[in-house]
Amino acid sequence: MATGNVRYVRYIAIALFTLTLWYFVSHSKYDTIPIVDGKQASFPGGPGAPQVPGDSSGGSKPPAFPQGEGVTVGDVPKDETPLKDDTVPKGSNLPVDESQSEIPPPATSDLPKEDTEKAKGDETTKSDAAAEMPMPLTPNDPGWSNLQDIAPGPRMNATFVTLARNSDVWEIAESIRQVEDRFNRRYGYDWVFLNDQPFDDNFKKVTTSLVSGTTHYGLIPEEHWSFPEWIDQDKAKKVREDMKERKIIYGDSISYRHMCRFESGFFFRQPLMLNYEYYWRVEPSIKLFCDIHYDPFRVIAENKKKYSFVLSLYEYIDTIPTLWDSTKKFMANHPEHISDDNSMAFLSDDGGENYNKCHFWSNFEVGSLEWLRSKAYIDYFEALDRDGGFFYERWGDAPVHSIAAALLLKKEEIHFFDDIAYYHVPFTHCPTGEQKRLDLRCHCDPKENFDWKGYSCTSRYFELNGIDKPAGYEEQT
Ligand SMILES: Nc1nc2c(ncn2[C@@H]2O[C@H](COP(=O)(O)OP(=O)(O)O)[C@@H](O)[C@H]2O)c(=O)[nH]1
Ligand SMILES: *[C@@H]1O[C@H](CO)[C@@H](O)[C@H](O)[C@H]1NC(C)=O
Ligand SMILES: [Mg+2]
Q1: 285-341 per-position pLDDT tens digit
Q2: Is the peptide bond before 426 cis (omega within 30 degrees of 0)?
Q3: 157 CB under 6 A from ligand 2?
Q4: For the segment 298-310, what is each residue's pLDDT rounded down to a tens digit?
Q5: CA distance 67 to 85
Q6: Phi, psi at 66, each rounded to 5°
Q7: How many CA atoms lie within 13 A of 165 on its CB side?
Q8: CB 85 within 8 A of CB 73
Q9: Family, per the entry (predicted)?
Q10: Any atom of ligand 1 within 6 Å of the Cβ of 196
């Protein structure tokens, strides 16, 4: 019996050991983060990931940035171009952090970049694809609540665009993170960065790691960031000194004036931008408060919109005292450019005699590059540039774009993106209706919504277009 007892004890010990082992394996903390083979392996440089061209380190070393690889950008030669535009291929990207998600998205969420590119390049079948794959625009539409997978459907010929200095890197990183989390991680649109100085490696490394699409870096040529020869330097200098004394914001800044002139007349003509039809402008330190369930580029393209906004307000008159005089002169010289169905009522309360200073806030814009490159827009910009107000005053690109949109476009070509909740210091656009904020998982405080406050011009846009204001707007005035 003694040997029999020992055997039983041994069996029990083995059973206990097995149970304990099973317990530890099944309760191991690794198990709290689901590991799905396809998911893990899909990260470049992650376990099981294919080796990335130009990154022999397998992801453990900082990615390399070979010039001129990645998505071919028109016929701009990467190394020879006087603009020294750089393209950072997506292959050198760092992992995009989707691993925190409790429910791992299916492997289809990691469609290779080429599929997205193919969809974008497939312009001839775009309308077919669009018809087959309508966008969910409301919570009742199929596909609305799927924010995990790569978005199905066509891609527009579009890019994000940011003008920034190297020193803006962390502020723009914050903006990119928000744009990616709320929208672009499912779309993979490209991002063009422009600068009057060459971007440094750190800027490129950080931004490329954050953007899901392909990043491109362009150096602005000097003639797009300097005084035109007809500007009287002494006069411009006196203006800056005077504005400094009067404490006008950016009043004494030369670079801010170059920035405003560049955004007014040149960003859409940079070689890198010629590769796209639509743009979405993003500035440093902006916030997005709600999920973006549909593709704003597609809303613009399919509805033939040319310009869009989320915030509008009155311009500081001391920065633009003669902008309206120049505009009236342009209207008289170029009646052919003025739209019959324009939005003059947004700009003027007396049929165009005086400017009411209303403008769309241009730090957010989704719009048509083809429109900005049109003769009508260029003629307007050149008329303004000749008059010198970018330097003899401090004309901003916001009133310039806005006046152009309101006068050169048809009313219905300007779109208000209520669903894109947005902050740029110091103003917030937060959708008015509670149900909408819940549907879009917004994290903005509705009390902060600027739309219906006295200093906003958005009411005028609604009235002029005969659009009903959302229920509950009165409580936010
Ligand atoms: N490269 C470059 N970008 C600039 C310069 N000044 C402003 N910017 C960019 O132009 C945009 C507007 O400038 P910002 O300082 O945000 O002006 P604000 O929003 O009007 O206060 C931002 O995207 C800035 O990063 C400059 O001197 N060089
Ligand atoms: C995108 O638009 C640009 C500018 O119009 C054009 O040159 C380019 O061929 C377009 N690309 C595609 C893929 O349609
Ligand atoms: Mg800004």
Answers
A1: 999 999 999 999 999 999 999 999 999 999 999 999 999 999 999 999 999 999 999
A2: yes
A3: yes
A4: 999 999 999 999 9
A5: 9
A6: -65, 140
A7: 5
A8: yes
A9: Belongs to the glycosyltransferase 15 family.
A10: yes
